[in-house]
């Protein structure tokens, strides 16, 4: 229970920090960076649900991110649909496309699934890039409106947008938290662990994988739609492989299959890459080796490494406690024996 | 008839892994399958548990044809199994591993999980209780909160047993439960298997440790090169000419 309380405390501190951030940091640039990290985090949570908890690496998620973004753009600008209706439709439409892709893609496993989704992602990129009439092609897509007011709430200022995105991020984290510690989450983890074992335990792996994939696409499309309304300009690059690998880097650095991973990884990598901006593209010379070392020595990222470190310490403490108890018992029994000796003597 | 396999054949390309095997599992007994390496025992298990589709032949369970039924549906009917390599989630605790075993008897979905509905809470509780119950049965209550990776091989096997038992099975298929276990611990597992049968379960196991098989099995089937070469009580099988030749390397079974 004490651990649980401690975790609550940490969460409260983090939430307070996130809420106070715009007041503490008045620099508009940092606020912008933070807001955009929230968008990446939501997308990475989507990836984490499927790759981290269900064990299938989807490389089509940047594509779904882009579909979410472009759908919002097209619906608001070209079709004149009210913002929030377009927002919901964008997420639902992308999720539907995700379900269709999932139905086919999930017939493959492991590397084949990764390769298949890599291709799907690239096809999505090509469609966006080449379909000039709909997406504006390489020229990009401009004029997307900022989130419309909801009653008295207006999202026109950067600070308001920051809070809007924080709200969505908190919602996603909350859903993930509930999910991971539920029977459904355990089912996904069982599939990640061993699909054969899960099957023989009576779990319909196809149904569960599809549900997990669809929810994961939903999160990513949500991030895409938020991106479109925040940046308000779209280019086909957001569907490109490099965005996909950015997501993956955030996830791997933070910790794949952990709840804190997407937040930790995204913050750290975006912050570092900002600090190293003076190196231009040469920063990849630093990033590459660091990432490689991290994968070799901390395959579960920073959050995963921390969790394992704590578990190990706990185990060591338990063993020590058990050893002490045995020694004490031995000593007690020996003492009892010697006392008897004295009496007899 | 409890579980009956009729003329079951599984072909992998040019390899006949299981060839025309007819076999019945007797209810409430310990049924053993033995045979030299590569005899098709594990393939036979995979066919019964539904991980493989047979090339031909039928499988009936409690009078129902389950030949085309997927593995997860068979588990719901009451067929559980363990694997040679336990397939456990090593970084999680014992209890966390076993809880999922009862999942097939629950029905809460994604939305129940997110909204944490009454049904979800009730079913989660049921799964935890079931997990504790089967851990007690296999004698692991004391290590329920330990990480699986830190357990001994024998304890891991017991966790795998518990996981299979948590599905509320009627028939348990055990694939080499005593592999990689020392003789003392093997005795412990023997007792556990006997206890399962006394508790009303039916066991079908593959094993290489002859002393164990001869001691606890009620009936034995011997496979060699995918074919059934003998069947009967331990006594009958021990004295069977074909079995001796298969194990000791007769040049041809005439």
Automatic annotation (TrEMBL), chain A:
<dbReference type="InterPro" id="IPR001851">
    <property type="entry name" value="ABC_transp_permease"/>
</dbReference>
<feature type="transmembrane region" description="Helical">
    <location>
        <begin position="112"/>
        <end position="128"/>
    </location>
</feature>
<feature type="transmembrane region" description="Helical">
    <location>
        <begin position="247"/>
        <end position="272"/>
    </location>
</feature>
<dbReference type="Pfam" id="PF02653">
    <property type="entry name" value="BPD_transp_2"/>
</dbReference>
<feature type="transmembrane region" description="Helical">
    <location>
        <begin position="162"/>
        <end position="180"/>
    </location>
</feature>
<keyword id="KW-1003">Cell membrane</keyword>
<feature type="transmembrane region" description="Helical">
    <location>
        <begin position="284"/>
        <end position="307"/>
    </location>
</feature>
<feature type="transmembrane region" description="Helical">
    <location>
        <begin position="57"/>
        <end position="77"/>
    </location>
</feature>
<dbReference type="InterPro" id="IPR043428">
    <property type="entry name" value="LivM-like"/>
</dbReference>
<keyword id="KW-1133">Transmembrane helix</keyword>
<keyword id="KW-0472">Membrane</keyword>
<protein>
    <submittedName>
        <fullName>Branched-chain amino acid ABC transporter permease</fullName>
    </submittedName>
</protein>
<feature type="transmembrane region" description="Helical">
    <location>
        <begin position="210"/>
        <end position="235"/>
    </location>
</feature>
<feature type="transmembrane region" description="Helical">
    <location>
        <begin position="83"/>
        <end position="105"/>
    </location>
</feature>
<keyword id="KW-0812">Transmembrane</keyword>
<feature type="transmembrane region" description="Helical">
    <location>
        <begin position="30"/>
        <end position="50"/>
    </location>
</feature>
TrEMBL record, chain B:
<dbReference type="InterPro" id="IPR027417">
    <property type="entry name" value="P-loop_NTPase"/>
</dbReference>
<dbReference type="InterPro" id="IPR032823">
    <property type="entry name" value="BCA_ABC_TP_C"/>
</dbReference>
<keyword id="KW-0813">Transport</keyword>
<dbReference type="Pfam" id="PF00005">
    <property type="entry name" value="ABC_tran"/>
</dbReference>
<dbReference type="Pfam" id="PF12399">
    <property type="entry name" value="BCA_ABC_TP_C"/>
</dbReference>
<protein>
    <submittedName>
        <fullName>ABC transporter ATP-binding protein</fullName>
    </submittedName>
</protein>
<keyword id="KW-0067">ATP-binding</keyword>
<dbReference type="InterPro" id="IPR003439">
    <property type="entry name" value="ABC_transporter-like_ATP-bd"/>
</dbReference>
<feature type="domain" description="ABC transporter">
    <location>
        <begin position="3"/>
        <end position="250"/>
    </location>
</feature>
<dbReference type="InterPro" id="IPR051120">
    <property type="entry name" value="ABC_AA/LPS_Transport"/>
</dbReference>
<dbReference type="GO" id="GO:0005524">
    <property type="term" value="F:ATP binding"/>
</dbReference>
<dbReference type="InterPro" id="IPR003593">
    <property type="entry name" value="AAA+_ATPase"/>
</dbReference>
<keyword id="KW-0547">Nucleotide-binding</keyword>
């Amino acid at each position: 229970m004490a651990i649980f309380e401690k975790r609550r405390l940490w969460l409260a501190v983090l939430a307070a920090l996130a809420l106070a951030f715009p007041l503490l940091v008045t620099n508009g640039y940092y606020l912008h960076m933070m807001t955009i990290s929230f968008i990446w985090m939501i997308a990475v949570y989507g990836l984490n649900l499927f790759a981290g908890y269900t064990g299938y690496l989807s490389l089509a998620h940047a594509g779904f991110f882009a579909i979410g973004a472009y759908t919002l753009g097209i619906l608001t600008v070209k079709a004149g649909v009210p913002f929030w209706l377009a927002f919901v439709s964008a997420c639902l439409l992308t999720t539907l496309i995700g379900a269709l892709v999932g139905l086919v893609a999930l017939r493959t496993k492991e590397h084949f699934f990764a390769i298949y989704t890599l291709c799907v992602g690239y096809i999505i990129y090509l469609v966006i890039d080449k379909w000039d009439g709909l997406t504006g092609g390489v020229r990009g897509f401009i004029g997307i409106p900022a989130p419309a007011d909801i009653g008295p709430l207006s999202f026109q200022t950067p600070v308001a947008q920051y809070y809007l995105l924080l709200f969505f991020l908190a919602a996603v984290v909350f859903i993930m938290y509930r999910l991971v510690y539920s029977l459904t989450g355990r089912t996904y983890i069982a599939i990640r662990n061993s699909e054969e074992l899960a099957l023989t335990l009576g779990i319909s792996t196809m149904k569960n994988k599809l549900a997990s994939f669809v929810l994961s696409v939903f999160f990513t499309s949500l991030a895409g739609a938020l991106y479109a309304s925040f940046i308000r300009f779209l280019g086909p690059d957001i569907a490109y492989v490099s965005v996909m690998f950015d997501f993956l880097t955030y996830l791997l650095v933070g910790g794949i299959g952990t709840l804190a991973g997407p937040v930790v990884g995204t913050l750290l990598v975006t912050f570092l890459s900002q600090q190293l901006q003076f190196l231009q593209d040469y920063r990849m010379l630093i990033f590459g080796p660091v990432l490689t070392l991290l994968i070799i020595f901390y395959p579960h990222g920073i959050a995963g490494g921390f969790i394992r470190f704590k578990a190990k310490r706990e185990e060591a403490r338990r063993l020590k406690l058990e050893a002490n108890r045995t020694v004490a018992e031995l000593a007690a029994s020996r003492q009892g024996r010697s006392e008897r000796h004295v009496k007899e003597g | 008839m409890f579980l009956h396999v009729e003329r079951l054949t599984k072909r992998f390309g040019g390899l006949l892994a299981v060839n025309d095997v007819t076999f019945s599992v007797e209810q409430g007994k310990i049924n053993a399958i033995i045979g030299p390496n590569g005899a098709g025992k594990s393939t036979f298990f995979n066919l019964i548990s539904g991980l493989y589709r047979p090339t031909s032949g039928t499988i009936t369970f409690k009078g129902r044809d389950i030949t085309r039924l997927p593995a997860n549906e068979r588990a719901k009917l009451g067929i559980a199994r363990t694997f040679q390599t336990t397939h456990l989630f090593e970084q999680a605790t014992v209890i966390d591993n076993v809880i999922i075993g009862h999942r097939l008897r629950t029905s809460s979905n994604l939305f129940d999980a997110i909204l944490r509905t009454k049904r979800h809470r009730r079913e989660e509780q049921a799964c935890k209780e079931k997990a504790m119950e089967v851990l007690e049965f296999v004698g692991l209550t004391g290590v329920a909160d330990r990480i699986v990776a830190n357990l001994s091989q024998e304890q891991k096997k017991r966790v795998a047993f518990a996981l299979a038992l948590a599905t509320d099975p009627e028939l348990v298929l055990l694939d080499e439960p005593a592999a990689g276990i020392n003789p003392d611990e093997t005795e412990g597992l023997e007792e556990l298997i006997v206890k399962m049968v006394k508790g009303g379960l039916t066991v079908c196991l593959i094993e290489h440790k002859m002393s164990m098989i001869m001691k606890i099995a009620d009936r034995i089937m011997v496979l060699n090169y995918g074919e059934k070469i003998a069947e009967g009580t331990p006594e009958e099988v021990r004295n069977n000419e074909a079995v001796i030749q298969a194990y000791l390397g007769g040049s041809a079974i005439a």
